[in-house]
Write a structure and sequence with these properties.
six-stranded mixed sheet, alpha/beta
């Protein structure tokens, strides 16, 4: 089963086969509270319940498992502010490969500890630079000097193909979906799921949701090419990138029907409401798709809607800031 667009060809079924003993097939759950509020049928794809609490393991493992043993023996490197690192670390342990993880110095302790826990003695963690962009530069330099292989968070077809398996699972569980709301950071998830949906559920309207304080994909759409933003609000850390990928930009431009910017305050209110009403704990990026429903409340009435909840690596220490921003 090949998934095609004018831009790319993905073997999503092959990726699903590689991942079947590694990832959790996450539930697609009807949410009564959201359905009532928006007078439509809202389903949540719960990637927050994934083995590393986010979808990122899908792309990481799909790419890492594609290399022959002689390449893996040299070791692998990644740069990440959190979720990609955890998927990478888990995959290193699963594949018995040595990995080096570069993370910004400011990375929350919880994410560093989780990465260490998933990778055990297979990964070494290096804290470098104040931003993801700084640590990515250091990681790529280290990779070249040591003749290792770099595993990017979004800018590779094998990463995108792994993330596309989220879309495959959704469409195996549900048909006739009117709207799909998908978070956008670097664009890997939106590229993969968008490509799959455009082939197998072309009538579904795909809405990308990006943080208002880090609109790198939105700016790329306006300019016609990826641009590096001078500064961004890092609060929605799982989706806050200064520059989207060239590959993901070209795919998202074709696959997303629309891209909405979501205010950080609304994301915070969504986090609190999900916790209070449904006992669902999400990280800021994980709440983006649900927070995006508000803007389209009139449009989605009576429709069948799916929101991808991308992750739940939230640090409880952030709650005071989340409450403050919600106000």
């Amino acid at each position: 089963m090949q998934t095609s667009s004018r831009a790319i060809t993905l073997n999503v079924a092959g990726a699903a086969e590689r991942l079947k003993n590694v990832v959790v097939r996450t539930p697609l759950m009807l949410n009564q509270n959201l359905s009532r509020r928006y007078q439509c049928t809202v389903y949540l794809k719960r990637e927050d319940l994934q083995v590393v609490r986010s979808y990122k393991i899908r792309g990481a493992y799909n790419m890492m498992s594609s290399f022959p043993q002689e390449v893996l023996k040299k070791g692998l490197v990644c740069a990440s502010a959190g979720n990609h690192a955890q998927g990478f670390a888990y995959s290193c342990k699963k594949l018995n490969v040595k990995g080096v993880v570069f993370m910004p110095i400011i990375t929350p302790k919880q994410k560093v500890d989780q990465t260490r826990m998933f990778g055990e003695n297979f990964v070494e963690i290096r804290l470098v630079g104040d931003t993801f962009d700084d640590c990515a530069v250091a990681a790529k330099k280290f990779t070249a000097e040591n003749e290792m292989v770099f595993i990017p968070p979004f800018e590779d077809l094998r990463i995108i193909e792994g993330q596309a398996t989220v879309g495959l699972e959704i469409l195996e569980d549900l048909s006739d979906i009117d709207y799909l709301f998908v978070p956008v950071g670097g664009g890997g998830l939106a590229s993969g799921v968008g490509t799959y949906f455009k082939t197998y559920s072309p009538k579904t309207k795909i809405i990308g949701l990006e943080p208002e304080g880090a609109p790198s994909m939105d700016e790329a759409f306006k300019q016609g090419h990826p641009v590096t933003l001078d500064k961004i609000d890092r609060f929605i850390d799982g989706a806050a990138v200064k520059r989207t990928g060239d590959l993901t930009f070209s795919i998202c431009r074709e696959m997303l029907d629309e891209l909405d910017l979501v205010p950080e305050g609304r994301v915070c209110s969504t986090i609190l409401r999900l916790y209070n009403e449904d006992a669902i704990v999400v990280e800021p990026a994980g709440a983006l798709s649900i927070a995006g429903l508000e803007k389209r409340a009139e449009e989605i009435k009576g429709k069948k809607v799916v929101c991808i909840v991308s992750g739940s690596n939230n640090d409880i220490d952030r709650m005071p800031e989340i409450k403050e921003r919600s106000l």
